[in-house]
Amino acid sequence: MIPNTDPKTGIRYGVIPLHDLDPWFAYEEFYDNSENLAIKEIELEIDELFEPIKEFAKERGLDKETEIEKLKESIAEEMFENWDESEDSRLYEHDGYKIQLIGNDLFIAESPYVTLGPLCSPCAPGAVYLPDADGKRGFMAYCLPKECFEDDKTPYEYITIEEGYNKLWKQLYPEDNTPSLIADMNELMRFLYKKETEETDLDVLHWIRNLRTNVVLLLESAATDPNGDKVKFYLTSVRLQIGMVNEMKRRVEDENY
């Protein structure tokens, strides 16, 4: 499975430094509406520690749940009283966006908008580095719109996902060639079924099954409404992941050589 890539669509995560964005979005909209993942993890750990104590008291007929909850809350309050959130990871999920702060960078895992750009350095394998994107060449990635930048100026051109599907559709199948499309997808299905029976890596197996589902939906859409938007959507999702399929085929050929 390609890292830093949406397994449902094949669209790569966009990465951008927090300080490249408008202060309103970076330090108000994002921070005020995101969840602190480090604090959430610690709260879960505290809950797990106190759950056996609650069960222990309950089994012995002790009505101490209120006191135990107050003690738990007191410990959490003291822990977080002087908590430094500067290094914490945060998660923002609103209005079609899924964005995570890791270090000083935002990883955009879902967005209504996409652009084209170069891959990041090895520190974020598979993701696209948005400050160097221009929207004209490279890999498709989720991105942020102009409202998130100072003076409404993005470093890249961008379009909606729907526009992106239409654009890629014209590039992949410039003429109406549905029979060829169906033949290609049926061949891909046979390959995926074979790999599913052989694969032992759970992450790769999960990716294969997601891709196979998209191929099935693509074939169904092509049969019922060959000119509809669903065909464009599922074909684009499949085609964006063909690089991984080709790599798997190459490995099979090397093994059989």
User: Spans of 5+ residues with little confidence (pLDDT < 50)?
Assistant: none
Distance between the termini: 24 Å
Spatial order of strands in the largest sheet: 2-3-4-5-1-7
Number of structural domains: 3
Structure, explained:
The protein is α+β, with helices and mostly antiparallel strands and 257 residues long. It folds into 3 domains: 14-35 and 87-159, no CATH class; 36-80; 163-256. It contains 8 helices and 9 strands. The protein has helices at residues 23-32, 37-59, 65-80, 161-172, 178-198, 202-224, 229-239, 242-256; strands at 14-17, 34-36, 90-94, 97-102, 105-110, 113-117, 128-129, 139-143, 159-160. A 6-stranded mixed β-sheet has the order 2-3-4-5-1-7. β4 (97-102) and β5 (105-110) form a beta hairpin. α2 (37-59) packs antiparallel against α3 and α4 (161-172) crosses α7 (229-239). The longest helix is centred in the N-terminal third of the chain and has 23 residues, at 37-59. The two termini are 24 Å apart. 23% of the residues are buried. The model has no long low-confidence stretch (mean pLDDT 82).
Describe the structure using short key phrases.
single chain; alpha+beta; six-stranded mixed β-sheet; 51% helix; globular
List the helices and strands and how they pair.
Elements: E1 14-17, H1 23-32, E2 34-36, H2 37-59, H3 65-80, E3 90-94, E4 97-102, E5 105-110, E6 113-117, E7 128-129, E8 139-143, E9 159-160, H4 161-172, H5 178-198, H6 202-224, H7 229-239, H8 242-256
Helix pairs in contact: 2-3, 4-7, 5-6, 6-7
